[in-house]
Amino acid sequence: MRGGRTMKTRYLSLCGLFLVLFSGGGHWAASQQDSSRIRVNVVLVQLNVAVTDHKGNYISGLRPQDFTITEDKIPENIATFEEGDEPGVAADTTADGKPPEQQPAEQQSEISKAAASLQHLGANVFVLFDTSNYMYRGFVFAQDAIADFVRSLDPDYKVAFYSYSRDLSKATSLTPDHKQVLRGVRSTVAGDDAALYNCLLLTVKDAAPLKGRKAIVVFSNGPDNASSVPPENVAELAQSTGTIIYMISTQAAEGDPVSTAVFERMSKATGGKAYFAKNWKDEKQAFASVRDDLAHLYSLSYYPAANPNRGWRTITVKLNGKELQKYRIRTRDGYRLSQQAQTLSSESASSPDTGGESSPN
Asked: Which of 205, 213, 215, 288 has its CA 20 to 30 A from that of 335?
């Protein structure tokens, strides 16, 4: 009993720490210059946007000027733009109608650096596999579906393979070597109770500082019965760090109304999707759908305009022009600016010696 309380306290402490460190939506990065000075730089906000028609077909060929982004109803200038697996580029035009070359010199420089940092990044994909005692039946079929998914990914993608039961096991760290990931998939064995939300929080923490597109693909065979971290905290952290969560689950989890609602709500909040597979063929199809989604996402980034809001900031993305209004958009709907990020950013703005390398998130 005492050990259970200790583990619960540890996970709650981790949750609080991660929300402080990473809930700024990729808006600040800090490094310790010396014992008394912290260097901070406010950086880009990156959005991953899926555009589909009413049948779910992806719409390609859109341009930066086809999108309008607002944060708390404040228009934002699109700094960089990327379609699918194509290299990122500086946006042709921005929300104020001016091309990058007509922006202030400092802004031109930042936009150019941001575009360069997105070149050839591909995507970062974390696969989180349920190896709890829920998974004894159908375990091998799930492994096969995950292996096929890894093989199908673009060679430029970096992939990590984690598994979870009561604890998180990082079988393969993020790597471009997909064969190494496949070996990690085959090495997994079934385990204890399922602490999905605890382990998902730790996975989001690993994805948080990465540049470019980043996604977590969760395969779950049942409800969470061992976590101390609420799913709402996990969803908010993923939203605020620009991490997409895709949930792939079997009927065992779908049979639990609470899990079904949580999985759907969490994935939708981060710009992802939830799938409920009836059999192993459906599992493979769900993974194929995730692969297609990652390959067709538009990545747009912007420097937040002045905004007095120090809490949750709502992001809205719309398509311009009557002909595009019929299409549907899926993306995250906001982020929370942490109190420490606000303080550090204010200190950075008032000090001529502050700086730091920016990294889009």
From this structure: 288
